[in-house]
Amino acid sequence: MSRPLLQVRELSTQFSTYRGTLPAVDGVDLTIERGETLALVGESGCGKSVTALSIMRLVRRPGRIAGGEVWFDGEDLLRKSQAEMRELRGGRIAMVFQDPLSTLNPTLSVENQIVESLQIHGFARGRAARARGVELLEAMGIPAARERLHSYPHELSGGMRQRVMLAIAVSCEPELLIADEPTTALDVTLQAQIMDLLARLKEERRLAILLITHDLGIVSQFSDRAAVMYAGQIVEQAPVGDLLEEPLHPYTRGLLRCVPRVGRPDIPLTPIEGSVPDMVSLPRGCRFAPRCPEVMDRCREAAPALCDRGPERSVRCYLYRAAGQTAARQGSA
Amino acid sequence: MAEQVSEEEALASVAATAPGMVRLLLGNRVAVIAGLVVVAFLAVGLFAPVLAPRDPNTQHPEAIRAAPFWQAGADARFLLGTDSLGRDLLSRIMYGARVSILLGVAVVLLTLVAGAGLGMLAGYFRGWFDAVMSRIVDTLLAFPFLIFALAIMAATGPNLMALVLALAFKGWVDFYRVARGDVLAARAADYVTAARGVGASTPHILLSEILPNIVPPLIVLATLRMATIIIAEASLSFLGIGVPPSIPAWGTMVADGRADIGSAWWIATFPGLAILLLVLSVNLFGEGLRDVLDPRMRKS
């Protein structure tokens, strides 16, 4: 059995605020195999992006990674030096962000920004780097790639920009791509194009993708497994088909009820009542308890642990009893 | 929110590309004319030894306080007349341009590099360095600039090196503050996170990612500071503690002509006009630049 490409264990990232410590990511476990797409789903502010930044070790003050392990191909990223991390970032692990306009440097041409990454990682220089830039842009489906190389970000459309971002991301042939809401800033037709492009990259390059999104439509079409995050914790993890067919956690069910189904106008949309808890003073028991339609007394007393339900599923809820033993793993010291 | 910002950013980045910037600047007629005047002064200063009709320091005892060519009492050899020692005013003004521009450029470059460099470091790294630097800057801001320069020059006597240092001593503060503030904003920008995401090192981020984004306001500030420095140098020279008397400088010339202002108005007036014209042009050019480079100003 091969080891997973990425294995995140008990990852915790905290932010110090004037009001107290905010556990933005609280004991998150994730696993991604080579060539697999894992969707990380949740509302805004649930800690998805911070999880991604923590994996890349890009969390900045006042945030800090408080504990856990991030195993990438057999090495714990949290123990690596800054120099080693720089080599990995953009090299073996690449990242794409939500808003391509703000993530592209407005004062640098497309060429500069693609060549930059190639040069940092010693992939190509000078003429070769430029040629590879053209090649990459073409592979991303950008017409007249050679001319586009001299464009500045503001001269490109939103879809183009995200293609450029993807070209930069895959420029050094990464093994893992972390895509943080790659299509949120785009309109729907472009979303589909960009997602198709991602799917193709995944096929062609055997790319593992951590897809962060709040869009369940994208999850169903483009990922293999999904992890649902709520208030800094994973509340449910399952293969995508299972998750959509038979959601276990009340939060997941609530999320699915918020999505309209084409051709089923008879199913009413029901929003999840209430709002995300205050992360500085979290409820004592289950974090979803104040909004949960199926809340029980014990939910308010103590927080449930993540329990395995079958080989590939786990859920953090008292409604379910563990099939086998609890999933609470011992983090190695 | 993102929409508004992106529009403004898009505007800013039109100007951020060099060709776009030049196009916008050329559309501003005042700035173009002012720029040409500055270039003319620059050329005159640079080629003063070739262009000047006479040696600026040669005294002509036979033609003391000769009037400019259109007035009675003019000497055909001296277009703008001569001073109380019979030196050719036009040539002295041409040589004077050298001092003003040279000092202005030297001081501005020195303060730009030092101020922007320190400001970028303070803004990016924050921490104790920022705390210490910012206190120093606050202290310097409380100093009256000219009086301070006066004290230094009074202590050292007229001397070019001391003059540059006296003028630069406080001038870097403005660059520091602008650079620090802009880096503070830029370091939180998504493109910086993205650059770190492709493995860029801190020096690379500071120089290749952030610097191009904070250059426009620095250029504008540098231009406007240049005008201030020229005035300051002229003021110190006027007081006799700026440029050494052996070097023709506009401030010194104005001071020399002061006593004769009633009888020979041209001695003080022409160098005064030169100061006025150069400073005005530099300022107008700087403002034109600002309109092009600073989207906040462009809106109004």
Q: Assign the CATH topology of chain A.
A: Rossmann fold
Uncertain residue ranges of chain A: 324-333
Please give the largest β-sheet of chain A.
Answer: 8 strands, mixed
CATH architecture of chain A: 3-Layer(aba) Sandwich
* Count of distinct structural domains of chain A: 1
Helix count of chain A equals: 12
Q: What is the helix content of chain A? A: 25-40%
- Assigned CATH superfamily of chain A: P-loop containing nucleotide triphosphate hydrolases
Content of β-strand of chain A: 15-25%
- N-to-C order of helices and strands of chain B: HHHHHHHHHHHHH
Give the full name of the CATH homologous superfamily of chain B: MetI-like
Structural class of chain B, please?
A: mainly alpha
Shape of chain A: globular
Order of helices and strands of chain A: EEEHEEHEHHHHHEHEHEEHHHEE
| Strand segment tally of chain B | 0
Q: What does the oligomeric state look like here?
A: heterodimer
Largest sheet of chain B: none
Q: What is the CA-based Rg of chain A, rounded? A: 21 Å
Class of chain A, according to the CATH hierarchy? Alpha Beta
Question: How would the global form of chain B be characterised?
Answer: elongated
Terminal CA distance of chain A: 25 Å
Question: How would you describe the overall organization of this protein?
Answer:
The complex is a heterodimer of chains A (333) and B (300). Chain A is built from 12 helices and 12 strands. Chain A is of the alpha/beta class and 333 residues long. Chain A has one domain: Rossmann fold, CATH 3.40.50. In chain A, the strands form 2 sheets. An 8-stranded mixed β-sheet of chain A has the order 6-7-8-3-9-10-12-11, sandwiched between helices. Chain A has a 4-stranded antiparallel β-sheet with strand order 2-1-4-5. The longest helix of chain A has 18 residues, at 188-205. Chain A is globular. The two termini of chain A are 25 Å apart. Chain B is mainly α and 300 residues long. Chain B has one domain (2-299): MetI-like fold (Orthogonal Bundle), CATH 1.10.3720.10. The longest helix of chain B is centred in the middle third of the chain and has 37 residues, at 89-125. The model of chain B is unreliable at 1-8 (pLDDT under 50). The A-B interface holds A 53, 56, 58, 85-91, 94-95, 97, 99, 101-108, 116-117, 120-121, 152-154, 165, 168-169, 185 and B 2, 5-6, 9-10, 12-14, 16-17, 189-191, 193-201, 204, 208-209, 212-213.
